[in-house]
Amino acid sequence: RGRGGGVARKGACGSGGMEAAELRVGFVGAGRMASGLARGLLRAGKVPASSILASAPSDKNLDTWRESGCRTTHCNLEVLQESTLVFLATKPHVLPGVLQEIRPAVGPHHIVVSLAAGVTLQTLQRLLPAGTKVLRLMPNLPCVVQAGAMVFARGSGAGDGEATLLKNLLSSCGLCEEVPESYINIHTGLSGSGVAYVYLFAEALAEGAVKMGMPGGLASRIAAQTLLGAAKMMLETGEHPAKLRGDVCTPGGTTIHALHQLEKGALRATVMNAVEAATNRACDVAED
Amino acid sequence: AGVLAAHKITASSPDTDLPTVSGLRKIGVNFTVSNKDTVKNSDVLFLAVKPPIIPFILEEVGPDIEPRHIVVSCAAGVTINSIEKKLSTFCPTPKVIRCMTNTPVIVREGATVYATGTHADVEDGKLLEQLMASVGFCTEVEEDLIDAVTGLSGSGPAYAFTALDALADGGVKMGLPRRLAVRLGAQALLGAAKMLLESEQHPGQLKDNVCSPGGATIHALHFLESGGFRSLLINAVEASCIRTRELQYLADQEKISPAAIKKTLLDKVKLESPSLSLASASKVSLFTNKSHSSKKN
């Protein structure tokens, strides 16, 4: 078992031998998604701040990283040289250029995880040295508070060890599942963008309450807690949401009256439309 | 269903030209034009006339109601209270049961609920339940739920027929011959209903079980949702229930417009007795030992 104190082992065949605590994690790109992931990892105590190195062209994004105790640089190559597990978190259109830049420093010991929406494993593998362990990750924003939903797909060079390592590491940020690459765009539509749908719903709930006379701040907090509680029940009981919905509906009561309103507004179809639109857009963007 | 021999059933109607009359005769039911005869020959009396006619019927047969009679009203929107009130002028403790059934009793897949009146014993309810259970599902409910039951399972078959007609159209549009389309549509609904009745699972779960990711069914369901399918069904049940209550209210006012009663019928009826007569009734042989000791559960 590799207890080399974080020294990168050449030719490591990824039997999951490297402990997360010794892992040196790098982020190329330090924007919202990257810092969300990093913050999640830190809060979960999986990786010490000193083991995290992030690069960005300007200091704008890097201040918060430094405040957390992470190391920062303006040099992408340095991230590759110092880290084993490297997250590519640049904007998608910038990524190809960055890959060209870092390619010389990428070795067989690296585990490269791309967060870039729409950039396929095929593209990544084409722009990196043959056999590089590449994986593609689609997280969502609540990784920041360790309640994220993430899916990842592995490239041809990545084995069970890398998948297990990534899954173990990221489980500290929420739900993390391996999927076929074709599900990634769907995940975007469902959960990546999905977080925004929930905010919209929460806002509307609160607004309804305000209309009925409740102060906005309180309404907002209660709306959020309601969503949290309902989601928690779904996750913990494993029961079908239709059944859980039925459990709340007393005959002739308030809930069923309200649900009728939602059905009249074809809420279900609208939500399906939203997921479909976001997924299709993700596919379109990928093709560009 | 074999629970009753045909000769134990008596039915009456002033209009003998109805196709249903010849149908009943063919199966061996005793037919008469006299409601009084029907009442005299029965123990369990089903009042199967249209709701506005009920008060007239009760006036007519009231004098012949005896303590043994169980009066079962199937009239939508007619309350137990209104029947008991009308009968109490003739009989101090009339046994009244109100029931709501639906047309598939014909194929022994009916959905029936009943509520017992003030003077009906537990055994009286159980007797009715035994009878109706032979033609489908039957359970006792509180009377205030009967309007909702009307909206759901009373009218329900009509919703299903409408759906089946449309499903068949869909099949025909996509190339199926009509007969086959109707047959397959009906079987699909029958099968789905059966699965649900025999399963512990929520219909939502059963639906999910049919929807493979990205497949045909989920695409179709999206169309249903976009059209507000669910809310249409909720609206329908609600409308039927509300209308039932309206009719009940109108009946309670006893504002029965003569137009509600076919003119020919009204004339014919006025010829006979002071009050109208149009009761279909059945006689039931008590095949259980009807003891009057009440078993308190």
UniProtKB/TrEMBL annotation, chain A:
<dbReference type="InterPro" id="IPR028939">
    <property type="entry name" value="P5C_Rdtase_cat_N"/>
</dbReference>
<comment type="subunit">
    <text>Homodecamer; composed of 5 homodimers.</text>
</comment>
<dbReference type="GO" id="GO:0004735">
    <property type="term" value="F:pyrroline-5-carboxylate reductase activity"/>
</dbReference>
<dbReference type="Pfam" id="PF03807">
    <property type="entry name" value="F420_oxidored"/>
</dbReference>
<feature type="binding site">
    <location>
        <begin position="89"/>
        <end position="92"/>
    </location>
    <ligand>
        <name>NADP(+)</name>
    </ligand>
</feature>
<dbReference type="InterPro" id="IPR053790">
    <property type="entry name" value="P5CR-like_CS"/>
</dbReference>
<keyword id="KW-0028">Amino-acid biosynthesis</keyword>
<keyword id="KW-0963">Cytoplasm</keyword>
<comment type="function">
    <text>Oxidoreductase that catalyzes the last step in proline biosynthesis, which corresponds to the reduction of pyrroline-5-carboxylate (P5C) to L-proline using NAD(P)H. Proline is synthesized from either glutamate or ornithine; both are converted to P5C, and then to proline via pyrroline-5-carboxylate reductases (PYCRs). PYCR3 is exclusively linked to the biosynthesis of proline from ornithine.</text>
</comment>
<keyword id="KW-0521">NADP</keyword>
<keyword id="KW-0560">Oxidoreductase</keyword>
<dbReference type="InterPro" id="IPR000304">
    <property type="entry name" value="Pyrroline-COOH_reductase"/>
</dbReference>
<protein>
    <recommendedName>
        <fullName>Pyrroline-5-carboxylate reductase</fullName>
        <ecNumber>1.5.1.2</ecNumber>
    </recommendedName>
</protein>
<feature type="domain" description="Pyrroline-5-carboxylate reductase dimerisation">
    <location>
        <begin position="181"/>
        <end position="282"/>
    </location>
</feature>
<dbReference type="GO" id="GO:0055129">
    <property type="term" value="P:L-proline biosynthetic process"/>
</dbReference>
<feature type="binding site">
    <location>
        <position position="76"/>
    </location>
    <ligand>
        <name>NADPH</name>
    </ligand>
</feature>
<dbReference type="Pfam" id="PF14748">
    <property type="entry name" value="P5CR_dimer"/>
</dbReference>
<keyword id="KW-0641">Proline biosynthesis</keyword>
<comment type="similarity">
    <text>Belongs to the pyrroline-5-carboxylate reductase family.</text>
</comment>
<dbReference type="InterPro" id="IPR036291">
    <property type="entry name" value="NAD(P)-bd_dom_sf"/>
</dbReference>
<dbReference type="InterPro" id="IPR029036">
    <property type="entry name" value="P5CR_dimer"/>
</dbReference>
<dbReference type="GO" id="GO:0005737">
    <property type="term" value="C:cytoplasm"/>
</dbReference>
UniProtKB/TrEMBL annotation, chain B:
<dbReference type="Pfam" id="PF03807">
    <property type="entry name" value="F420_oxidored"/>
</dbReference>
<feature type="binding site">
    <location>
        <begin position="74"/>
        <end position="76"/>
    </location>
    <ligand>
        <name>NADP(+)</name>
    </ligand>
</feature>
<feature type="binding site">
    <location>
        <position position="13"/>
    </location>
    <ligand>
        <name>NADP(+)</name>
    </ligand>
</feature>
<keyword id="KW-0560">Oxidoreductase</keyword>
<protein>
    <recommendedName>
        <fullName>Pyrroline-5-carboxylate reductase</fullName>
        <ecNumber>1.5.1.2</ecNumber>
    </recommendedName>
</protein>
<feature type="domain" description="Pyrroline-5-carboxylate reductase dimerisation">
    <location>
        <begin position="143"/>
        <end position="247"/>
    </location>
</feature>
<feature type="binding site">
    <location>
        <begin position="48"/>
        <end position="51"/>
    </location>
    <ligand>
        <name>NADP(+)</name>
    </ligand>
</feature>
<dbReference type="InterPro" id="IPR028939">
    <property type="entry name" value="P5C_Rdtase_cat_N"/>
</dbReference>
<dbReference type="InterPro" id="IPR000304">
    <property type="entry name" value="Pyrroline-COOH_reductase"/>
</dbReference>
<dbReference type="InterPro" id="IPR053790">
    <property type="entry name" value="P5CR-like_CS"/>
</dbReference>
<dbReference type="InterPro" id="IPR036291">
    <property type="entry name" value="NAD(P)-bd_dom_sf"/>
</dbReference>
<dbReference type="GO" id="GO:0034599">
    <property type="term" value="P:cellular response to oxidative stress"/>
</dbReference>
<dbReference type="Pfam" id="PF14748">
    <property type="entry name" value="P5CR_dimer"/>
</dbReference>
<keyword id="KW-0007">Acetylation</keyword>
<dbReference type="InterPro" id="IPR029036">
    <property type="entry name" value="P5CR_dimer"/>
</dbReference>
<dbReference type="GO" id="GO:0004735">
    <property type="term" value="F:pyrroline-5-carboxylate reductase activity"/>
</dbReference>
<feature type="binding site">
    <location>
        <position position="35"/>
    </location>
    <ligand>
        <name>NADPH</name>
    </ligand>
</feature>
<keyword id="KW-0597">Phosphoprotein</keyword>
<feature type="domain" description="Pyrroline-5-carboxylate reductase catalytic N-terminal">
    <location>
        <begin position="7"/>
        <end position="77"/>
    </location>
</feature>
<comment type="similarity">
    <text>Belongs to the pyrroline-5-carboxylate reductase family.</text>
</comment>
<keyword id="KW-0641">Proline biosynthesis</keyword>
<keyword id="KW-0028">Amino-acid biosynthesis</keyword>
